[in-house]
């Protein structure tokens, strides 16, 4: 079964959503798919800045997974929820085949590029550049606002750690509570921020859940530090 | 033996004043001082280091003009400091106006700069610091006058990539200072000519000088109360060990891992009612702490030091008269070398005691003792020089300045480990370093090296700094420094593995440097702790050395198990083996024992292959993969030197099909690709080859979500560029070391399908110890997915969310 098809269904402000095992968010009634933090062109950006020459396949890999999701879910509307490109030059630096591939994904769909901290401002690509998108009751923006409700965002690359006896698994995850959903990073070359981190713990309500991605979507209570122990890890988002 | 060379008067007087005479091997070293390469094999305490330096002292006595004359390279920082002290005294007493300085990772920036501008006569350093010195553009000036290189403890260096890196550095030095002479100093090894070829400039000849090995060691098992069924702590032996410490002047207590040394030291200290001065020393302790122990040891103030491999090497620890090895030695050669640490007086027998930590180790210790008495040594021939080290060498060469590829290839192939390197392999490494070496040539504009006028150079000269920061071939698991909490930044205590640190919650206690500390917080990637005396600690999981039990030793153990009775073994161990014989059966040299049994709600399968830890681990990977395919839902496994224990959700009714050699072999390549061992091997190769940076603890600049795991790179390469150089290096590395498929082949050939399957109702005596082994490897398959689902449902139900 394609990971996009396996999903955890939930409701946010009346909108019936599905958190897919692939990391995409699906809103069937609106024919909408949302993906966040693709970080296309990351290897190229690191090389350009004199860093290591990482395997230059992550853009193709991310696009291939996205193509599979879109083929399975057949959305009329796609929102890329920011940090779609590792920086603005990375958007310009796509190869011709990659550009063609992306164009094929955009073809016949409404496509919104929400801007992120890595890719502010309009891109020289088809689709519409937006600071944020409002659709029905929901607002789609890159970085969550603490006081917002009915909000869909990305940015933090949340990952959840789950103990299985002595072993542990760590997987990219959705974070969901009554006010918001935070999407996992969809890009291949992305790391994660543990849900225990202050930045995430502070944003999410006490009853928030985490939906683990991978081959199946598993919902668990959002892992947090034990009560009355103040968060001690200082990590700036 | 060559005729003794007369010493110059100043040196001869110095010897005479002490009533000393040259050992034969020291005289032989002097007589052959002009040879381009020499290997001296001598037991500890034979004046080996002085033998190495004598020709330098003779030459410098005749001509003390300031220049770098002799470079001394040792595997340990502590050794360079120690040699510095020991050399200083005679040089001063002889009235030689010589500068002797060390240069290690601990040397201050000021001293480093001065040493490069105005080097001492004798520079004492490590392979990593030498590689760093050679990466600067002023290296040709610094080393132009170099005449001799002394490589100490070359047997230890040759066992790892550090030796390969050093030999590449010597090839470079030879070009900067033509006519350079090399001397290697080695403990007893099984194949001296191979070590000589490793050291010498290819194809130079290299004579091997053998010093008198001295009298046979006095070695026995320590009489103790029965050891436990399992575990490595050897706490049962503490009263007996304290008794021995009291009865000797200075005792070294060796452990195989840092974690074991810590636990043992803690327990020893609690039982130390006479308050004997006892200290602990291992590589995870802060530098200051190690230095304090070393100083106290040299001053003769300590009665015992609990230590690990860091004290394996020839540091002069003063008057050690007893060596205790806690835990099975795994390898006869290493045991012999450790025993040599006791009694530095030449021609006095070394005294050593073995302390098995559990019942199986009693058997292994007995087998090792028999091997030592018969003079059997073990060891595996080393393969050709690894290519990830070559990649790093090429990068470091570029950091020093533009180079010509043909000249560099010619230079590299003069290094023993790289003598047979094909040009195509060299070119592939150069291509990887320059362009990434990807099938998709994506980095034309951003190459790391580019050709200018036929010579290769860094595209961005600022990259030299990153290259220097990543030099070296030692890949530790990522560690975090541990400090006492204080407003001004408390005293450093040592370091723990990052994986361990992330499991800590405030209030947890663990052991470091023999103290119980309380975890307070993780601040800027430093673990902050407070002292918490007298509480039961959780164990700090340090990365221990994981040497596999050698083939020689494994064969001896299997032979021993065939005896009808074991009158030489302590009764407790003989009884245990007899019980195994009764409820199951004993492993035999030409058969394979496989036990299956249920335990704590999981089905278990235990394979007694005796293929060494790495071989047994690979067997675990191969078997779990097949079990996954057969729908047996394996969850994980753990391996020791003699067995692999696998657990899962389904029972294995007939294990025989799992061991079909052809299918095991066929599957190896595909199967191994996705597993954790390969990913770990890949990470190490990727760091050494310069694909990814080392993470320096406390200096991580990027926030967490900006960094990602090397596993992702491995998966990506496998999917899109399966023939990439780094995957090839990873496979080669893994087959050689961590995978050790050779030992499995050997086992399968020995067994030839004769599998004894024992379906038991419960854990067997021989398999019980495996349940307490650390290093469990999870299998990520259908079984785990079932568990994740169950755990998720349970958690949601508990939280009232489902």
TrEMBL record, chain B:
Keyword NAD listed: no
Xref: InterPro entries: ATP-dep_Helicase, DEAD/DEAH_box_helicase_dom, DEXH_lig_assoc, Helicase_ATP-bd, Helicase_C-like, Lhr-like, Lhr-like_DEAD/DEAH_assoc, Lhr_WH_dom
Entry keyword Lyase: no
Stored Pfam families: DEAD, DEAD_assoc, Helicase_C, WHD_Lhr
Domain annotation Helicase ATP-binding: ranges: 29-207
Domain Helicase C-terminal: 237-390
CDD domains in the record: DEXHc_LHR-like, SF2_C_LHR
SMART domains assigned: DEXDc, HELICc
GO MF entries: ATP binding; ATP hydrolysis activity; DNA binding; helicase activity; ligase activity
GO process terms (BP): DNA repair
Record keywords: ATP-binding, DNA damage, DNA repair, DNA-binding, Helicase, Hydrolase, Isomerase, Ligase, Nucleotide-binding
NCBIfam families: DEXH_lig_assoc (TIGR04121)
Similarity comment text for this entry: Belongs to the Lhr helicase family. Lhr-Core subfamily.
PANTHER family: ATP-DEPENDENT HELICASE LHR-RELATED-RELATED, LARGE ATP-DEPENDENT HELICASE-RELATED PROTEIN
Protein name per Swiss-Prot or TrEMBL: DNA ligase-associated DEXH box helicase
